């Protein structure tokens, strides 16, 4: 590889000229107005590093660098910078650069770093390496080239690559030397709207002088939005521009903008249209939305850089209601599916859930219209819907009175029967040897098990949930109207301490931690080894008598409680798949940062008994009788909701095992790349592949389709789904607002108290390891599988949920504030941000 290449060289690639250089070469070859220049290839960087013996010392300096520890990054960067400063450029590289620069006749140039992991569609690295403007003279160019090479190892560049999992040994840097544009104005052009995500708009910024003032944030530029189809202005915001970057004899500096230009538009309408057309030409060349740096000089535009936009919001979506006169909401069944669902779940499981729901509506309300109650998918998100016709509304009114009585009287028995049937089906499939099943039999098993999952969930909806809700509501009203005095605790205090599945799981884990404390060696391992290493040890065959006993006890705990779900989509892992969050909770019991659940329950039971006795003593006979009767019912019913929901995932481990085995077989024949890719196929596609697999038929790779769907899912995950459809101000009053903005979020105050603490924003178990003791859990919703986190949390904030959701119940038991149903807390609150959670007022303050 040569040390020098002409700017438009056909052989310019990512490997030899870096991302920025490759892009400039492509633009130049396409005839776009790119300033002339040349590349100093990655071969020059590698020769410089090799000749000076720098590589092992670079890697040594990076050994202690961690993306989360700024001091470690600064230390590594300083060490490497000293190495580069002391190193000498080999004579043959000096000769090559000097010869190339001679063509400029000592004219000022821009010297730009161009890394091999830069300006890529998946990682822009924007601003991570250095650019130097107005460099003049051979010696100055050589010194600046060395500075560019060293900028590969700035603290921010090291951190960025660590977060992107790019190995330092794979990195190299090229340099682009270009004729300097004496810019009268400069800025950035996006060929899609980076704020809204709209692909039919361009947005550009413009400021006086060189573009460095915009890049550094020293100036607020003009912002102009342009219609892509016509290249005409949609909106112009002319800023008051106070400073500008200008060239000097030896570099650049900032100076005040002349008075007449401060509030003057930088570009006129004609210039805006011309620049927009250049942007469209560049976008067509790359076939993706682009981020383009431009300059205006001597009556024409110059293109200084172009890279794909890597963080473009998803374009605004239409949210159609599939059936007329139906109101959709993200409640009930949808609450257990906070993310967009996988294609397999959407096409296999959702229809089964819909059938179970219609069956429920028919049995308890006599509603048989298949469009009366829907479980449907809109833009990847699950919604439940009710048809707003007179007949359906009338049936619902009747059901609310007649069927409610039936649910309260027989709901527990029907739930118990559904639970027994569900467990029977799961055990039946557990007794089969998966490796001997046909692929079609596996899918049949998935359908049979999830049918029972859906039937069980409807039984929970018509038994434990309404019983818990009604009993607590009636008790709370009676307590408030007939019993409560000023200053006395709220009604839920009388229900704290109830035994339920979540508490039993917590006790089980606590018992395991207390047993582990009896062995000093085991205790040391559990406390000092990272959670992922402990999980790895759990799968090893032997580690001594104490460790083997711990593994046996932990396995027993997982067998009992490992099926609880984070997300009902069977594409999502369950605790049995990755016990790291449970290990982290166990560590909290071992080091004392989490409390004793037995003591907490005992204190709650003693407190409610003391309160009960105090109330009973002062009540007359009639009020005492009513109070005690309703209290007994509420206390007996309180655990039902958590117990019912905890077992929704009973079939999940087996469903995931069946699909994993099917996926492995498809991997063996080259249909998909990984077993988990099975979830990105639709049911009809999986059925066809299963039939072909069983009958030795023709099989075609689905790898491209899988990757396309994964990308679409990632884009949909960035969307905030409306909580109610159709979008309607009247309906929005009855649901969490997903469009809240400002410094305050309103929700439902579900557990009293007020806390100011660090927010930990989590979408699922993949984020659990980021939580620190005392953090506020910020989530779309929590399920019983999240309970191990509550022992270390100071408060709870959710997008979805209300006073009887899991988050509310557990938060009250732990005595921590909770604000639920904020609509968009996970999007509005930044991870690590200090927030105030006021569970009394139902408000989250962001500053």
Concise structural overview:
This protein is of the alpha+beta class. Helices cover 47% and strands 16% of the residues. The strands form five sheets. Strands 18-25-24-20-21-22-23-19 form an eight-stranded mixed sheet, covered by helices on one side.
Give the helices and strands, then pairings:
Elements: E1 4-6, H1 14-29, E2 37-40, H2 42-51, H3 55-62, H4 70-86, H5 91-102, E3 109-115, E4 131-135, H6 138-150, H7 155-163, E5 173-179, E6 185-190, E7 201-208, H8 212-216, E8 222-227, E9 233-237, E10 243-248, E11 251-256, H9 259-262, H10 269-286, E12 290-297, E13 300-308, E14 326-329, H11 343-365, E15 373-378, E16 381-387, H12 390-430, H13 439-462, H14 464-483, H15 501-516, H16 520-528, H17 531-538, H18 545-561, H19 580-591, H20 597-618, H21 621-646, H22 652-668, H23 683-694, H24 703-717, E17 724-725, H25 729-732, E18 744-746, E19 748-751, E20 754-762, E21 776-779, H26 787-790, E22 795-798, H27 806-814, E23 818-820, H28 825-828, E24 834-838, E25 843-845
Parallel strand pairs: 20-21, 21-22, 22-23
Antiparallel strand pairs: 1-2, 2-5, 3-4, 3-5, 6-7, 6-12, 7-8, 8-9, 10-11, 12-13, 14-16, 14-17, 15-16, 18-25, 19-23, 20-24, 24-25
Helix pairs in contact: 3-4, 4-6, 4-7, 11-13, 12-13, 12-14, 13-14, 13-22, 14-21, 15-18, 15-19, 17-19
């Amino acid at each position: 590889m040569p040390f020098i290449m002409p700017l438009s060289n056909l052989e310019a690639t990512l490997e030899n000229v870096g991302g920025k250089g490759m892009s400039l070469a492509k633009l130049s070859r396409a005839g776009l107005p790119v300033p002339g220049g040349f590349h100093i290839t990655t071969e020059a960087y590698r020769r410089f590093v090799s000749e000076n013996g720098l590589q092992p010392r670079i890697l040594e300096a990076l050994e202690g660098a961690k993306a989360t520890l700024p001091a470690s990054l600064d230390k590594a960067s300083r060490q490497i910078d000293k190495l580069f400063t002391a190193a000498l450029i080999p004579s043959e590289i000096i000769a090559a650069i000097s010869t190339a620069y001679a063509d400029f006749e000592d004219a000022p140039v821009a010297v730009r770093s161009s890394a091999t992991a830069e300006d890529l569609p998946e990682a822009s690295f924007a601003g991570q390496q250095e650019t130097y403007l107005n460099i003049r003279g051979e010696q100055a160019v050589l010194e600046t080239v060395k500075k560019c090479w060293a900028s590969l190892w700035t603290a921010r560049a090291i951190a960025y690559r660590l977060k992107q999992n790019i190995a330092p040994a794979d990195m190299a840097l090229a340099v682009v030397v270009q004729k300097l544009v004496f810019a009268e104005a400069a800025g950035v052009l996006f060929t899609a709207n980076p704020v809204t995500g709209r692909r039919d708009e361009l947005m550009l910024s413009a400021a006086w002088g060189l573009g460095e003032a915009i890049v550094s944030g020293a100036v607020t530029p003009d912002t102009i939005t342009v219609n892509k189809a016509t290249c005409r202005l949609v909106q112009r915001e002319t800023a008051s521009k106070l400073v500008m970057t200008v060239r000097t004899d030896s570099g650049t500096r900032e100076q005040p903008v002349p008075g007449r230009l401060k509030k003057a538009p930088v570009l006129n309408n004609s210039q805006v249209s011309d620049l927009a057309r250049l942007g469209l030409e560049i976008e067509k060349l790359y076939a993706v939305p682009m981020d383009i740096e431009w300059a205006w000089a001597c009556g024409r535009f110059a293109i200084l850089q172009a890279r794909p936009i890597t963080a473009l919001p998803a374009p605004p979506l239409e949210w159609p209601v599939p059936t007329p006169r139906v109101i959709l909401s993200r409640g009930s069944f949808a609450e257990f599916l906070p993310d967009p669902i996988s294609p397999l779940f959407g096409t296999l499981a959702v229809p089964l859930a819909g059938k179970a729901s219609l069956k429920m509506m028919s049995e308890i309300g006599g509603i048989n219209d298949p469009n009366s109650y829907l479980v449907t998918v809109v833009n990847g998100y699950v919604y439940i819907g009710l048809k707003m016709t007179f007949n359906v509304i009338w049936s619902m009114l009747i059901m609310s009175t007649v069927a409610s009585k039936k649910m309260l009287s027989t709901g527990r028995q029907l739930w118990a029967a559904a639970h027994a049937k569900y467990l029977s089906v799961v055990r039946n499939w557990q007794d089969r040897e998966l490796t001997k099943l046909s692929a079609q039999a596996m899918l049949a098993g998935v359908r049979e098990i999830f049918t029972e999952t859906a039937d069980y969930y409807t039984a929970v909806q018509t038994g434990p949930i309404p019983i818990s809700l009604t009993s607590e509501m009636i008790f709370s009203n009676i307590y408030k109207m007939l019993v409560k005095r000023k200053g006395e605790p709220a009604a839920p205090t009388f229900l704290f301490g109830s035994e339920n599945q979540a508490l039993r799981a917590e006790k089980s884990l606590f018992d395991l931690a207390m047993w582990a404390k009896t062995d000093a060696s085991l205790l040391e391992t559990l406390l000092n080894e990272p959670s992922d290493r402990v999980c790895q040890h759990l799968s090893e065959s032997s580690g001594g008598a104490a460790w083997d006993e711990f593994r046996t006890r932990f396995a027993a705990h997982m067998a009992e409680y490992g099926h609880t779900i984070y997300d009902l989509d069977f594409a999502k892992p369950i605790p049995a798949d990755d016990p790291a969050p449970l290990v982290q909770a166990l560590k909290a019991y071992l080091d004392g940062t989490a409390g004793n659940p037995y003591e907490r329950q005992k204190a709650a039971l003693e407190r409610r008994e003391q309160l009960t006795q105090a109330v009973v003593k002062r009540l007359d006979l009639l009020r005492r009788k009513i109070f005690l009767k309703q209290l007994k019912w509420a206390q007996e019913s309180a655990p039902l909701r958590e117990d019912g929901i905890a077992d929704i995932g009973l079939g999940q481990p087996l469903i995931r095992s069946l699909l994993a085995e099917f996926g492995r077989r498809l991997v063996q024949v080259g249909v998909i790349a990984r077993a988990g890719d099975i979830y990105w196929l639709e049911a009809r596609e999986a059925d066809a592949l299963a039939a072909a697999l069983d009958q030795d038929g023709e099989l075609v790779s689905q790898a491209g389709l899988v990757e396309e769907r994964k990308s679409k899912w990632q884009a949909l995950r960035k969307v905030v789904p409306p909580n109610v459809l159709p979008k309607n101000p009247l309906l929005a009053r009855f649901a969490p607002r997903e469009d809240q903005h400002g410094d305050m979020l309103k929700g439902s105050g579900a557990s009293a108290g007020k806390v100011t603490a660090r927010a930990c924003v989590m979408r699922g178990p993949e984020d659990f390891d980021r939580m620190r003791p005392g953090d506020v859990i910020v989530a779309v919703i929590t399920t019983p599988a999240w309970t191990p986190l509550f022992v270390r949390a100071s408060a709870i904030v959710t997008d979805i949920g209300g006073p009887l959701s899991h988050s509310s119940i557990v938060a009250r038991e732990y005595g921590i504030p909770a604000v639920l149903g904020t609509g968009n807390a996970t999007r509005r609150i930044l991870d690590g941000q200090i927030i105030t959670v006021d569970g009394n007022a139902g408000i989250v303050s962001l500053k």
